[in-house]
Fold this protein.
Amino acid sequence: MSEAQRAEERVGEARTNLVVMKFGGTSVEDAKAMLRTTAIVRGRRERGLSPVVVVSAMARVTDMLLAAAAAAGRGDKFGSLALAARLRNRHFDTAAELLCGDRFTEVRAAICAEFDSLDDLLRGIAAVGELTPRTSDNVVSYGERISSLMVAAAFAQHGLNGVQVDARTCIITDDHFGKAAPQEAPIEAKLTELVLPLVQAGQTPVMGGFIGATADGITTTLGRGGSDFTAALVGGGLYAGAIEIWTDVNGIMTTDPRICPDALRVKTISFEEAAELAYFGAKVLHPAIILPVVQKSIPVWVLNSRNSENEGTKITAMAPPCASPFKSIAAKKRLTIIDVVASRMLMTHGYLKAVFDIFDKYHCAIDMVSTSEVSISLTVDSNERLREICGELSKIADVKLEGSKALICMVGEDIRGRSGISARVFSAIRHVNVRMISQGASEINMSFMIEESDVEEAIRSLHAEFFVDPDPTVFDTEARVAAAKA
Ligand code: ASP
Ligand code: MG
């Protein structure tokens, strides 16, 4: 083996030890949470891992920054500066509790400088009386810029060699402000140049999530909730061994534990299954976010920073075989069904297009569709534009609206090619009125529409049917066994 090959292998080994750890707003919401986060990262270092940390802004800070930006955009300078002052105090108080000595003095000065420049920016916006998406991104970026500063300082104080990296030097995006698209190749190059050497020197880099910059250095953001996206980009770009998303739930559950107290933690789930669930507000990654890591087969863990002993859920490219057909049951409420009936549709083409064009015009996303020769049923999130949409639809068809509906979605790779599953599903809920049914093209989910008021009952019945005897290799059955013994 040549020297170069050996060196390459060593890098390979180092990368397996590299773990990207993302902490959401609640995991850095105050000094106590930041200290919990510090302890979790220390635990990983003690296991011989090299963490790269991505943090969100402190909880609720992004919302307040957006409110400050909006106030400035309306010309309300004082309202906007008052919000910024509240944020400044909250960050000062947190730093005072978190840090001591010279480190506190330094960080306080750095926070002060950031808030001074934020105030200048808000005054500028208020003077112009106009808020562009570009300036809005600039305002909102302060949340992650300052939280990463503080967390890095906490890590430094507690012997973890914390060092802040400005995410805007690495996360290169296009200039679609508010929801910029990351550019993978330059990101990988920047991470290799700027972050990898820090890791190799035994430091713990801390970056703000959510924010980036164009190639020209103009600040951008990846869209709300974008810190998970940053974690995936950093993990993908550095070829990390794993990505850990630290949040405040025990990973992905078989269903909402508030509805079914005997819901179980799912130990492993596939990217595809997680993506189906993400849409239903299950606390998992957004599908687009998962892509950069799927391509590199990097496992993603969802973990609970308030319960760090919990093993969480591992999301992998391929799901291990599972004796239970479904992994999880989710529900989405506040939906409306729109029935579009037109005899004109008979034997014509272009009709569906005409219908969908109307939804497109109002940027209204359709969740589920079922069609017959003369009718189309569509489901959408209940929203303010429905009245206008229906107005336009009624020019080409008879339209009927039914509100207060809910979509139940059952996800599992193991329903593929198995017979008798839908019979079990619908017999479990035979007392519930089912309005629309669809089995996704992906063949890993079964969805159907019911009355909102039937959701709890339906979920309990389905959970009882499919999770009486769950596969212990995939679901955490220990809690249930313990409960049965007690
Ligand atoms: N702080 C940003 C937000 O609240 C990004 C994130 O937390 O993921 O949307
Ligand atoms: Mg989040």
In short: Residues 101-128 form the longest helix (28 residues). The chain has 15 helices and 17 strands. The longest strand covers residues 328-341. The radius of gyration is 25 Å.
